[in-house]
Amino acid sequence: MSWEKEPGRLDRRRLKRATVSPEDIGLCGCWQVIAVRRERVELGPKAAPPSDEIGYYAARLAPDPLADAGLLQAIRGHWDAIEHGTHPRRDVSFGEDARRVSQRGAAQILAALRNLALGRYELEKERGRTDVAGVKSWGRQMTASTALALLGR
Question: So where are the chain's domains?
Fold first, then answer.
C-alpha cells in the first residue's frame, strides 16, 4: 500500500491474513486472522518519532470476500465509528480521557456507569421525556431521587 497523507502525518497500512477454521483456532465463527501493520510518520517541526505497530484481528468473514483494500477500509471504518461516535460524547460529557484510574476493575465500573448514563439519556430523549440538548446538562439537572426513579423504569 502507498503512503496516505493525513493532517500532520503520513500513514501506511499493510495487511497479512490467514484462513483458519473455528475449530483450529478455538474461536467460534472465526474464519480469518488478520495482522495490520501501521506505520506513521509525524510531520512538522515538533514531530514525534516514526511509529510502527501491528494490530491483530479475528474476523467472521469467509475467506476472501473482500480484497485487501476493502478489508483495510472495513477495519478503519470500525475504528472511525468509535472515534467519531461514542468516544467524543463520552469525553466531552464525562472528561473520560483526562481520568486516570489505575485499578482495572474501577476503570471498568466507571466505564459501565458512563455507558448506563449515556444509554438512559438517549432513551429519555427518544421518548420525549427531556428536552435538554446534551447529557452533560441533563446530568447537572439530575437529583439522586430522579436518577433512582429512572433506573426503575
Answer: 4-74, 89-152
